[in-house]
Design goal:
Helix content is 77%, strand content 1%. It has helices spanning 3-23, 28-41, 49-74, 80-103, 106-126, 139-156, 161-170, 175-200, 216-236, 242-267, and strands spanning 210-211, 214-215. Strands 1-2 form a two-stranded antiparallel sheet. Helix 1 (3-23) runs parallel beside helix 9 and helix 3 runs parallel beside helix 9. The two termini are 30 Å apart.
Amino acid sequence: MDIFLIVAFLALGALTGFAAGLLGIGGGMVLVPFVTMLLAAKGFPAEHVVKVAIATSLATILFTSVSSVRAHAQRGAVRWDIAKTLAPGILVGALAGAQVAASLRSSWLAVGFGVFVGLMATRMLRQRPARAGRALPGAPGRFAAGTVIGAAGAILGAGGGFVTVPFLTRANVRIHEAVATSAACGFPIALAGALGYAWAGRGLEMPAGTVGYLYLPALASIVATSVLTAPLGARAAHAMPVERLRRVFAALLYALASYMLWKGLRGH
């Protein structure tokens, strides 16, 4: 990997880590489009580049979720009782989701990801509080919910918070506990999803440094800076006009969504 790509991935890790800490958003929404751009420019196979970007983004959560959960746990916000009951379904869903994503055309994944990011940008602008509903389901219901969370996270290269937080808040879990518990659920999503993508991409003719669909040089570079800037973003959230920054970031997400839609539709 040349020096330009190393610097680009280091900068990308710093950006996504800071944004995650500042705005509480998943880094995958930024990582996947930018990693796709960088790897496509470097000649990665077009039929695999989006899958590599999603898999690599997902694997970064293995590292960033640990520091996030530690901070939440110190404040007693993680509902471990919920996380433990969701985890089995999450593991199954993430493993299966990686296999499903690997079987799809990259253009379909790009379109789906573009739609998802556009919806998340709209949600970020609206910021409507989730309405409380019924209580948490029993063990079978939590396993089913975990399966959906894990599959969605693996297919989109995200930690699943876009599903987990609304699910928990509608079940009368306090928002801070929902966010903290969602962060704890990000680790099993990332672990099972990363292993699933490594297995699904075995035997493919890929550039050096790739294990299955995981591109290790990008993973190492992004993690090196994102774990440093995420705490800075969280600290800055208390001193900066977050609402204005939220609008700017939403505009960036719309641009990235447009890029992924364009890439997917052009692939068709």
